[in-house]
Amino acid sequence: MTRPAQGTRASLVVVGAGPRGTGLLERIAANAPELYDGRGLDIHLVDPHPPGAGRVWRDRQSPLLWMNSHAEDVTMFTDDTVDMAGPVRPGPTLHEWAALDGRTFADRRTQGTYLRWVYQRAVAGLPPNAVVYHHARRALRVEGSGEERQRVWLEGRATPLPADLVVLTLGHLDAEPDDRQRELSEYARAHGLVHLPPDFTADSDLSVLRPGEPVLVRGLGLAFVDLMVLLTEGRGGRYAGDTYVPSGREPVLWAGSRRGVPYHAKIGYDWTGERPPLPRFFGPAETEALLARPDGFDFRRDVWPLVEKELGFAHYHRLFTAHPERVRTDRAGFEARYAAAGPDERAALVAAAVPDPADRLDLAALDRPLDAVRYGSHAQLQDGLRRYVEADLRRRHDPAHSPDLAVFLALLSVYGQLVRLGDVGGWWHGFFSLLASGPPGPRLRQLLALSRAGVVRFLGAGTTVTARDGVFRATSATVPGAAVEARALVEARLPHPTVERARDPLLRALHADGAAATPDGLLAVDRTDGRVLDRAGRPHPRRFALGPHTDARGSGAFTRPRTGGVAFRQNDATARAVLTFLRAPGRPAVPDHPLLEESSR
């Protein structure tokens, strides 16, 4: 295999210049003093959007759209809790950098400004003879065997970028609609209806949703919250305390989903006292044992019991530590019996030790709160769902329920192990988002106001939509026999860009060229350093990938300080592999690159 020769400039192409690409650049700068030999290095960032902010955090979007995390919980910098080989390079959190109250939910444009500053700092920290070029274009395909320099073709450019190595940090991607979505869109065109398939809400054309008309909405997660904001305040409505004052330009949103409820609100208090010692039942040893199984593992059979036990341990450790008046036994004895017990024995143990059912962790009820609930009418459902949201807001802002925050910390710990296991299916990510990635509390208070004003109405759980008789019709298991008709349907969720359906031409070309994909449609990578795997499981020596399009994806949220930072660990491993490769001699000289575009330094 040939590598950059002594005295020649090495070339690295990074496709995607948003937060993940910026994080990789920061780790390259941090590791370069140890690993790089000082020869010239050209880093080409390929992204049609601005470096740092990328698409999601760009300036050109509504100032009404917020981040989904407290400003104090957002950092782009490593600390000593990250399990990595590279050096810690501390830096400010968003709230420290922007001088915000740490409990603020900053708007996305403010986060974009922070990300641009992090990008500029990372560039400034690179070796003196490194030059960064931003190509505001899309990458179309990459060519080249593992034995030769890669060629990265860009949209609108006649010659490819030569690259010793290529790293994909693509972030969230658009996807072609699946068969069902195509059917609904075709039906809408044939009958003069409106169908908005899964998309990034900030990029959707919402002008087609007309004032006063009913709109069916499938999805009650974060995409729904954006939709709600843009169609209410974004159309001139306002809030007077807990009352919504309409502008008259709002449609009527009938919203439902599989669960029928919005994600749980962000927890609104800080941790105090002793933390649960995590991991306890699902750590590196258990992960390695699962990976070593010759016949593989099944998530529900082999992994979920470990997750369930870990979450329960964190919950009860906090209950016994912070609220001992609400239990009937001592913590040490309970935890010893908990550790030895199977699922049925644990249920009996908890029932005996924790008298109030509200203090027990019931993951099934959290996952499907409406499964056994039925209402006789949609009017009754509205009252019931408002009570549910009100109760959630009270609980998530009351430190008397601090075991909920312990479960959140356990979820972060568990996520770090699941990333090592690879693609564990979509259910887990939805469950994690339900508990850990819900909207800010103020957004749910706005939802309640909109519900009372009749602008938002709930459909219930198990929402299904059919297209017939020239309209869309929604039903749910929660209100049997009732239906809502509308001439507009919005799929309020992000697209799921499998390698076959991603609109990104580079990702699809890689797959067609032999890159492996998981059953869930994610790009398969070596989880030690992010190298792209072929269908025989062999890593490509010159191609890497990081982010949600891979089976080593982490949470979509930004990293909280002092939580181990799975993305930081991955970025560091890839950066070190890149630098180690690029410093080695043995490649003939390559001419200077033609048509180099905007240089950052």
Provide an overview of this structure.
This is FAD/NAD(P)-binding protein. It comes from Streptomyces ardesiacus. Pfam families: NAD_binding_9. The chain has helices at about 20-35, 95-100, 110-125, 180-190, 220-230, 285-290, 300-320, 330-340, 345-355, 365, 380-395, 405-420, 425-435, 440-455, 505-510, 565-580, and strands at about 10-15, 40-45, 130-135, 140-145, 150-155, 160-165, 165-170, 195, 215-220, 240, 245, 250-255, 455-460, 465-470, 470-475, 485, 490, 530-535, 540-545. The relative contact order is 0.18. Strand 1 (about 10-15), helix 1 and strand 2 form a beta-alpha-beta unit. Strands 3-2-1-7-19-18 form a six-stranded mixed sheet, with helices on one face. Strands 8-17-9-12-13 form a five-stranded parallel sheet. Strands 4-5-6 form a three-stranded antiparallel sheet. The protein is built from 16 helices and 19 strands. It folds into three domains: about 10-175 and about 495-580, FAD/NAD(P)-binding domain (3-Layer(bba) Sandwich); about 180-265 and about 440-465 and about 485-490, FAD/NAD(P)-binding domain; about 285-370 and about 400-435, no CATH class. It is globular, with a radius of gyration of 25 Å. It has about 600 residues and is α/β, with parallel strands linked by helices.
Oligomer: single chain
Shape: globular
SS field, number of helical segments: 16
Tell me the distance between the termini: 31 Å
User: Which percent band covers the strand fraction?
Assistant: 5-15%
Low-confidence stretches: 586-596
Averaging pLDDT over every residue, what do you get?
93
> What fraction, in percent, of the residue positions are helical?
25-40%
Q: Over all CA atoms, what is the radius of gyration?
A: 25 Å
CATH class of the largest domain: Alpha Beta
Protein name: FAD/NAD(P)-binding protein
InterPro entries: FAD/NAD-bd_sf, HpyO/CreE_NAD-binding, L-asp_N-monooxygenase_NS-form
Region (Disordered): 534-564
Organism: Streptomyces ardesiacus
